[in-house]
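Q: My labmate handed me this sequence with no annotations at all. I'd like to see what the chain might look like in three dimensions before we decide whether it's worth expressing. Could you predict it?
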Amino acid sequence: MVTLIGRNGAGKTTTLRSIMGIARPRRGHVRVRGEDITALGTHEIARRGIAWIPEERRVLPNLTVLENLRLGMLGSSARNGADVLEEVFGYFPRLRERIDHRGRFLSGGEQQMLALARGLVSRPSVMLVDEPTEGLAPLLVQSLTEILADINRRGTTILLVEQTLEVALRLSHRLYIMDQGRIQFEGTPDALRRDPTIQRRFLEI
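A: Here is what I predict for the chain of 205 residues:
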């Protein structure tokens, strides 16, 4: 679990978009398991096992929960779709209750659950998760934090963009602070906790 943190406009979301081939990097390379994927199309990058959960969630409003999930399974290597759905409903039982509801009738928290679940059903090896706790009630933030930690423990690498420092410190094995498109700190959560100067300089508003 690697977390990228920083103020608004620091370049965090652009980093994820560059990895997915949505925003083309002007220099440098993106490599996955040694393969340079910088020039690949977004659909090809997704087929390399990378799932993107955008900040805007992008739940399709006229499709049901189940239909949104089935879209996420297109191109997946999973052999049994029913088993995959059962796995994500284990994480998000609320989605099972809302399975026939269209996306536009879901609450913000339910849409965030669906966005994460739609990424999970593709059985990714890497998940890029952008601001999953933004705008959510504290109880739901705690629940999503636990779910992300469990997904990671089960073997999925997560690159997380997060503005809430405590969430980042709780989840991360390693974290980076970005400011104006540059990495200003790299280290463990404990190292950042011991450095209030860095926190004040790059994270406080």
